[in-house]
Design brief:
The protein has about 80 residues and is mostly helical. The protein is about 60% helix and about 0% strand. It is globular. Pfam families: DUF5062.
Length: about 80
């Protein structure tokens, strides 16, 4: 897994877009107290469920790989 040049900013963008996506769909309401870790996992699983992104093999799923996958997704937005 090759790290993206501006991965940190892309993860922030992915979290913002994912929160908006989930709330617009009506499946989740995030609280201000929810951690970024929880948001990353929920958004990743929601996007996989909706077939927006390809799933990572279950034995390779980790916070790092989910963040990377969301960063790639965010880089393709706009």
């Amino acid at each position: 897994m090759k790290k993206l040049k501006n991965e940190k900013e892309l993860v922030k963008k992915a979290i913002a877009a994912g929160v908006k996506y989930g709330e617009k769909r009506g499946v989740v309401e995030f609280e201000a107290t929810d951690s970024a870790t929880e948001k990353v996992e929920y958004i990743y699983r929601l996007l996989v469920h909706d077939k927006v992104i390809q799933p990572i093999p279950e034995d390779q799923v980790s916070q790092l790989t989910m963040r990377h996958k969301l960063a790639i997704w965010a880089s393709r937005l706009d």
